[in-house]
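Journal club prep — side note

Before the paper discussion, L.F. wants everyone to see what a predicted structure for a comparable chain looks like in token form. Sequence:
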Amino acid sequence: MRGPALAATLAVGLALAGCATPADAPTSTQRSATTEVPVSQTPAQSTTTPTTPTPTPTRATPTERSEPSLVGDTANAWAFTPVDDPGAVVLEGSVTRQRAWSTSKVLVAAAFLEDVVDGDPTRLDEQQRAWVARALSESDMDSLLAMRRAISGDRGERMTAILRSVGDERTIAPADREGTMEWRVEDQVLFMAALARGEVVSPATSAYLIAAMQPVESQSWGLGGVGAAAVKGGWLTPTTETRQMGLLDGYAVAVISDAVGPAVLQSDGDDAHVEQLDRLAAMLAERLGAG
């Protein structure tokens, strides 16, 4: 992964996380011959036919392979931005509904750390550490619910404030059922870039969350299969969106597919479009020059 900010953040995170569990005619070469007419016996009347210039041979140049793109795609979308330049977001493709599903667990965990331990993960007890680890690595719902219940006051306001602090002026987090909120890929990369720079709640919280975003083996598809340093996915049914957000080779990235391809039952009991997310992740890694 490139970028000093992300490297430093990861290093701190790994130290803090402790036992966190590791988403492309030929042109015909033409030649004309010169035809000569025999010369007559009378020199004054000697003639030859005009000579047609021989064309210069040309060689067909192989067409360069175009880079992977989702421009014009209405069933898939992705966004990416360099971690150190969040203003350079690239957005391609479009998906009408972009519900957060379990990607929102990262936001809940951030609000939990902010409220319960004032952004200092070293103050978490063993049970609280397990909640964060299981929610982000296994997408465990019970752990998510435990963190949510522990957040005081208006949870929606607290989570929305975190989003505003990283430049997301659109997403509104509800107090409950945050997985149903619309969280667009171009806004998710703002969150992930800020996480990589240590700007979500606190540097320690950001590093801790990144270290915890290591999917268990059964969920290590998509971005998890192309070398992403941190990944959190979201999915629900065979007819709804499957998505992931993460950090890949110095970029904050997010991908989403609108129920394209077969769905596979996950360890959390819901279904994800694994094959399509694998395809999108491989395309994106090629686009970014990773992998």
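L.F.'s comment for the group: Helices lie at 4-17, 104-117, 126-137, 141-150, 155-165, 185-196, 203-212, 274-288. Keep this in mind when we get to the figures.
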